[in-house]
Structures are given as C-alpha cells and as structure tokens.
Amino acid sequence: MDLSKTGKFIAEKRKNKNYTQSRLAEILGVSEKTISKWECGNGFPDTTLILPLARALDISANELLSAKDLTGEQYRLQAEENLVILKSQQEATNRQMLALEWVVGYLSTLTFLVMIAVGSFLVKPLEWQICLIVFGFLNLFVGAMTAMKIERNVGFYECGHCHHKYIPSFKSFFFSMHMGRTRYMKCPNCGRKSWNKKRSGK
Predict the structure, then answer these.
(1) Beta-carbon neighbour count of residue 178 at 10 Å?
(2) Tens digit of pLDDT for each residue in 71-80?
(3) Contact 69/24 with Cβ under 8 angstroms?
(4) Helical pair 126-153 and 72-117, crossing angle rounded to 10 deg
(5) Which domain holds residue 7?
(6) 49 found inside a domain
(7) Which residues are 172's β-sheet partners?
C-alpha cells in the first residue's frame, strides 16, 4: 500500500467536499494532526476508521484502500486484491506480535532472576531484599500475563481433529497443558480434546 498516494487521495477527496482538516477530524473524532499525518503519507487510518472516513468523503472503502476512483469490473478486481493485501498485512502483524510475546517472556524472566539474585546475595538490609524479591515476582507475573494475552488473542488455534479455527476462552487457555504454543484443549466445534496448534493466519 502506497501511503503517499493514499494521503494525496484523502486530501483530494476532502477538498472536493470543501472540508478543512479540522472539520474532517471533528467528523471522525480524531485530531487535526492525525488527518495531516494521513495526508502527508506518514500513517494510515485505523481499521475502525476506514468505513467512517470513506462515508465522510463519499467514496467506498475499496476506493480508499486503492487510493483511486473505481467502477464496474475494475472495482471487483481491486476489491479482491485489497483483501489479499489486508490479509497478508494482518498475518505479518500477527507474526510480529507473536515474536513480541517471546521478547516479553524472556525479559520478564531475566528481570525476575536478576532481582532474586540481587535481593538474595548483594543487598544487605532485609527490607531491600524483600522489596527486590517482591518486585521480581510482580514483574514475572505481569510479563507472563502479558505474553499469555498476546498468544491467546493473536491469530487462532486449530483443532487437531476437525481443523476448526478458533480463539479459546481465557479459562480454557490458561489451564491447558502446553508445549510451546501448542495447547491441549477442547475444541468448541467437535467437542474433542487434542493438541491444538497456534496459527498466525491462513
């Protein structure tokens, strides 16, 4: 997606409606700076703003994503291409988030071990030892919960039996046995328990 081209298209359509950046920002409930950022090609509207922006500019969401006016067969073909692009972008984002999960997990574990070591061997006053150890456990808990939230919400799990794709309830996810990102859970579709693999897309 060419952000510069999209920005120019948004600016053109805004001017055609005789909207100032301030007025368009007011309609969408965002800041004028956000509109300016889009039009300068330094960002793209959040997915929740694509339809409202398209309606405000009297264009289709497909035209907004394509950054050009579309008609007939061209519209259909461009819609298919846009869907493929958005899906590939979502999968790339999912992979980045799952990589972030590992970073959060490792950093929180490392910080925990350092705090325990420092609190146990290098700090003398008992009060400081207790503070460091408590901080280490809190850090580990927050890091673990953050990593688990990322893993559960990004992408989906695929049933080992019926290959149904789903996002498990937090309770089912939290209490399941796991090996890496593969978890032993009950499928909401077929009702059978199996090792369900994590998928970032497709």
Answers:
(1) 14
(2) 777 766 777 6
(3) no
(4) 160
(5) 3-70
(6) yes
(7) none
In a shared domain, residues 148 and 161: no
> 109-113, 119-123, 162-166: which range is least confident on average?
119-123
Torsion angles phi and psi, residue 177, rounded to 5: -70, 150
Residue in this structure with the two tokens 């579709």, named with its chain if needed: 189
For residue 81, is it within any domain?
no
pLDDT score of 180? 86
Q: How confident is the model at residue 26 (pLDDT cuts 50, 70, 90)?
A: very high
